[in-house]
Amino acid sequence: MPALWSARSRIEKKCNEFMKRRYSQFVPTVLALVFIAACGPIRPPRNAYQDANTLLSEMEKLRAPIHSFRIAGSIDHVQEQRIRGKAYMFSKLPDNLRIDILSPFGNTLSVLTADKKKFGLSDYKTGRFFSGAPKPCNVARFVGVALPPKDVITIMVGKIPIIKGEQHISWHEDGHYVVTITNATMTQVLHIGADKETLPLLSASLTENGKKTIDISYDMWRFVGDLYVPYEIRIQMPNDNAELFVQYEEDGVELNVELPEDAWDQTIPDGARMEALTCE
Questions:
Q1: Each residue's pLDDT tens digit, 110-155
Q2: d(Cα 165, Cα 52) in Å, to the nearest integer?
Q3: How far does CA 85 lie from the centroid of its chain?
Q4: Distance (Å, whole) CA 252 – CA 74
Q5: pLDDT at residue 33 above 90?
Q6: Which residues lie across from 208 on neighbouring strands?
Q7: What CATH number does domain 68-165+177-276 carry, 2.40.50.100, 2.50.20.10, 3.40.50.970, 2.40.10.330?
Q8: pTM of the model
Q9: For strand 128-132 and strand 166-172, is the pairing parallel, antiparallel, or unpaired?
């Protein structure tokens, strides 16, 4: 297949070198924007990806070594009311997830646990314990976004479930790839950073039957050991009028750690009212 993009001039190379330094946070944002305007559109590298499937496969390989995590951070959930809290997140991929939310004063507000078969939610504010299947509707009661636990885990380490369909790759003049996947009812658009060593996912959106159902952005990518993960994640679900912002602490990310098997079991609060969750 013929090359889709041409080689860069010496001036463009200098501009792109500057952009790399900007992304490394060594240059103030305002100055970086001035240089972007001066340099003009950023052209892709000589060895740019020409095939969407190859790019997606390489991106998946870079995240694949993550098999568990322990993360400390914060959650800001906006829906009918705004909820903020300190969050402790644990996972054993692909299905086991635990999230503990604490108030700014250190009091436990809620605890979510999920595995392949069951879901549990302790609501300490109302003195209730919910149990049911690990379905998106039940997760939405806790984090405000209707996603299965497996997808929540995937998103937290900088990945996204990829839909099946026709794939198309293009280059964005801001200096990254755009992969568009379409099928009969859905369109998924992924913006992916150009550095072949890291290939960070910058954003991902999904449209179903002409309506955008989810929009995710990833920021503040950093190395934890030799693995690259985002430290800021924003999830928006327009149909549910819901938004979730997750931010990890500076030294709050531990990858591939040993977690106890009972981490996915909950101690039900004394006197809690038991309620079965359904999606009706």
A1: 899 999 889 999 988 889 999 998 888 888 777 667 888 999 999 9
A2: 12
A3: 19
A4: 10
A5: no
A6: 186, 211
A7: 2.50.20.10
A8: 0.82
A9: unpaired
